[in-house]
Design a protein that fits this description.
Order of helices and strands: HHHHHHHH
Shape: globular
Helix content: 55-70%
Number of domains: 1
Structural class: mainly alpha
Distance between the termini: 53 Å
Amino acid sequence: MTTLEPGQTAYVQHPTARFMLSHPAHLVAQGFGSGLSPLMPGTMGTLFAWLSYNVLSVRWPSTFDSINWLIIVAVGFVAGIWVCGKTGRGLGIPDHGSIVWDEIIAFWLVLVLLNPASFVTQLWAFLWFRVFDIVKPPPIRYFDRRLKNGFGVMWDDLLAAFYTLLLFALWRTL
């Protein structure tokens, strides 16, 4: 018998393109399909964030400047609480692996605050963000285990972004 976590339903929906396309919240929460990857969906969501950030920033630099990106991240965080919560309920697992909007928003924040940055710097940011998101050093693990709603899904990745930015701030001071 499987033990259910708080907020988890007895039925777990398998993430499919049909499910993702059944509601706009699912489409966003599952990173426009990047979260449906059978291998490392969180990493695929972060790659999507990296690619989309650079494409949008290069294609429309005056529209996607730092201030506008920070507004997008803030609005995306608030909206993410709802879209990730709704998608988690629909899947039957509050923080299902296919939900990657939290990685996208958090990594956009990292990129906004690091830029202008070289490809190598962005690559290191990507790698460190993934390490912090996967390992979940304290207090990330604490919040990941205790907050299972949409806010919890979004919050632990924001902390991983903070750790990544803190690491770069320390590195730049050396």
